[in-house]
Each structure stands twice: as structure tokens, then as C-alpha cells.
Amino acid sequence: MSESHQRQLLLASENPQQFMDYFSEEFRNDFLELLRRRFGTKRVHNNIVYNEYISHREHIHMNATQWETLTDFTKWLGREGLCKVDETPKGWYIQYIDRDPETIRRQQEQERKKKQDLDDEEKTAKFIEQQVRRGLEGKELEKPVYTELSRENEEEKVTFNLNKGASTSIAASSKTSSVLGPNALKMVEGAVKRKESAHSSGQSKEKKKKSALDEIMELEEEKKRTSRRDYWLQPEIVVKIVTKKLGEKYHKKKAVVKEVIDKYTAVVKMIDSGDKLKLDQTHLETVIPAPGKKVMVLNGGYRGNEGILESINEKRFSATIIIDSGPLKGRRVEDIQYEDISKLA
């Protein structure tokens, strides 16, 4: 039995109710702090959290608290609204509820962006549907009409004239020109020009059709470019700690992400002190450097690409960058949101 455990039992024997309340509060606070820092708002089995909790030497033993079993404690967390809890055939699962105002604000912002992305996808889908419908309607109009061969006189012969019209028309035009003089030649030239202009107008219509298809392709590319994820952490980016729960020592201080765990959690190293912390992404925000410095794109179609910050638009909370890696190197990307890029360490 450890020294801390003996001390807990000794104090509890002197004033059982008072120290049971004290140990219950300590156990609850330490357990929730571990759940928050280690797992964030992810759903996790209560035994996983408890086993990690009791692995620390100075932990409060559950037999010194008001809860007899871990199941009782889990149900209590649910009734008090501290966690979302649900029972499955594999046991009880818990999910921390983060009521920090800054976290709630960021979650609402993420929901707003997700809704906006869905609206953009619906608009793109409708536009593509309209273009396809117009294309089909155009094809129906151009569809040839086939008629049955018929002749009024049974004795009349049916003949097919292949490539004869051109030579006949040329011969006829030469005859006419010799009879009527230069005026006839001008008339023929005018007819040829009208035919050529009609042909060129047909080509312009074809170009219009192609441009509509190109527009669809561009929209699809834009859709891919603006595709977003609800996670953004990347190794070797500089971030700022925004949670106040760690005290003034870390609040608003900068750190470098050294490791990303399960997409949403980062092991960061403080720039000033060298301390290492494990934090959820909701407790961090991106850092925008001065123009000319290197950044990493964290969301959207350019996610994972490095770039050079060209300029900042403070009114729109956005920036313009030049992609500096990969096949898109040299591409200029405008109006990229602050939260989608961060300074590289």
C-alpha cells in the first residue's frame, strides 16, 4: 500500500464524511482533467480513462470517494451533465462536454462553415444538372428526321447524286459569269462568304458548348479545392494556445506541433520554456507570420502544401499565398482564411 493511500485512509477515519467529499471532488476533477487533456471531446471507453488515471502514483483511490464502482461514477457524470454517457454490450462509453466559451465559439464557426460548404455543393450540383439538361435539349433539336423514299410517278427513276452538285454548281457559275460578267462573279463570291460566315458561326456555337463544359470542370476543381475537414493539425507548424485552463503561464503563448495523435490532438513544445503539452485542437489556433515567411496550408484542396505568404487582407481575415511545393508550385492562391494556414517552424 502506497504512502498516499495510507494517508487517505487515515484522514478518512478521522472525519469520514468531510474527507469523502474532499476526495470525491479531487477524484472527479483529476479524472475529468485527464479525460479532457488526453481525449478531448472524443467518445472513449470509461475503463481506458480509468486505467490511465490509476497508473499515476498520486491518484485518489475510488474506495475513498462517494462512488462504489466506476459504473456508478460514469452514470453520475451523465446525470450532472459533465459528460455524454452511453451503455453498450462492451460497457460504458463517455464523452467530455467542453463548456469553455472559446471552444463553443469555434465549434459554432466550424458548423457555420460546414453548412456553407454544403450550400455551395448544392449550388454546384444544380448548375451541373442545368448544363446537362441544356445539352440534352440541344441534342434533341439537332436530331435528324428520316423520311420514307417515295415517288409520284411509277415510271420515274430514282437517282442519287454524289459530289456532283459541287462540280455542277462550279460549271454553272462559270457559265453565268461569262454571260453576266463581273457582277455575277461578285454575287458568287458573296454567296461563298455567307456560307463561310455561317460555318464560322457554327464553330462559335461549338466553342460555346465547350466553354460550358470547361466551366463545369472549373467548378468541380473549385469544389475539390474548397473541400474541408474538421481537423487541421500538422507537424512542425507554429500554434498559439488559447485555452485559459492551463493558467497564464501558457495562455496566448506560442508552441510548435511535434506530433499529431488521432488527427485532433497535438503534442506541442513551448517556444519560450521548452515544456511539452498534449492538447486538443480546440485549445489551439493558427499563427500568421509576416509576408515573405513560409506557411503550411491546413485545410481545403491545397491542404499539406507549403507556401510563401504574399499579403494579408485584415478586413476579410484572409491572405494570399504562393504555393511553394508539389505539382502546384508557383500557383497564386487568394483569399485563403487565416485558420487554414499557419506559420512553419
UniProtKB/TrEMBL annotation:
GO cellular component annotations of the record: cytoplasm; nucleus
Compartmental location: Cytoplasm; Nucleus
GO BP terms: DNA recombination; DNA repair; DNA replication; mRNA processing
Domain of life: Eukaryota
A GO term, aspect molecular function: RNA binding
A Pfam family the protein falls into: WH_KIN17
Keyword Nucleus among record annotations: yes
Transmembrane stretches, start-end: none
Domain KOW: 288-315
Segments forming a coiled coil: 104-131
UniProt-listed InterPro entries: DNA/RNA-bd_Kin17_WH-like_dom, KIN17-like, KIN17_WH-like_sf, KN17_SH3, KOW, KOW_KIN17, Rib_uL2_dom2
Domain DNA/RNA-binding protein Kin17 WH-like: 7-133
Keyword vocabulary terms for this entry: Coiled coil, Cytoplasm, DNA damage, DNA recombination, DNA repair, DNA replication, DNA-binding, Metal-binding, Methylation, mRNA processing, Nucleus, RNA-binding, Stress response, Zinc, Zinc-finger
Region annotated Disordered, chain positions: 191-213
Family: Belongs to the KIN17 family.
Subunit structure: Associated with DNA polymerase alpha, RFC1 and cyclin A, in multiprotein DNA replication complexes. Also associates with replication origins at the G1/S phase boundary and throughout the S phase in vivo.
Role noted for this protein: Involved in DNA replication and the cellular response to DNA damage. May participate in DNA replication factories and create a bridge between DNA replication and repair mediated by high molecular weight complexes. May play a role in illegitimate recombination and regulation of gene expression. May participate in mRNA processing. Binds, in vitro, to double-stranded DNA. Also shown to bind preferentially to curved DNA in vitro and in vivo. Binds via its C-terminal domain to RNA in vitro.
Descriptive protein name: DNA/RNA-binding protein KIN17
Taxonomy of the source species: Eukaryota, Metazoa, Chordata, Craniata, Vertebrata
